[in-house]
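Lab meeting, item 3. Inverse folding demo.
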C-alpha cells in the first residue's frame, strides 16, 4: 500500500525508512500499538528501477513509497530481503522530486 512520511531532511543514501510507532500513535489508532512503520521504494517499469517520490512541504519533505505496518522484529528480515533484491536486480534507488 502507498504511504508517506514527513521528514525534516532526506538522506538519499537510505534504501528504506522505518520508525517504531509510539504510545502516542497508539492513542490515535489503538490497532497500531507495538507496530513499526516501514517505507521502501516503489517498483518502476522494471525490477532495476526503484524510487521514492519527494514533495517539498513547509518545514521539510513528504516522502512517498511502499508502506508496511509490521512487527518490529520482522522489519530486520524485510530489510535484509530488500538489500538482497536490490543487489540481485542490480537496482538503483532514486529519489524523484515532484511539485
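The presenter then showed the designed sequence:
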Amino acid at each position: 500500500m502507498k504511504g508517506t512520511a514527513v521528514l525534516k531532511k532526506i538522506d538519499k543514501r537510505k534504501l528504506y525508512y522505518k520508525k517504531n510507532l509510539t504510545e502516542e500513535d497508539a492513542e490515535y489508532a489503538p490497532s497500531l500499538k507495538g507496530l513499526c512503520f516501514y517505507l521502501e521504494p516503489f517498483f518502476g517499469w522494471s525490477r532495476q528501477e526503484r524510487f521514492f517520490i519527494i514533495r517539498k512541504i513547509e518545514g521539510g519533505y513528504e516522502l512517498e513509497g511502499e508502506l508496511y505496518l509490521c512487527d518490529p522484529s520482522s522489519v530486520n528480515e524485510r530489510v535484509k530481503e530488500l538489500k538482497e533484491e536490490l543487489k540481485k536486480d542490480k537496482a538503483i534507488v532514486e529519489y524523484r522530486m515532484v511539485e
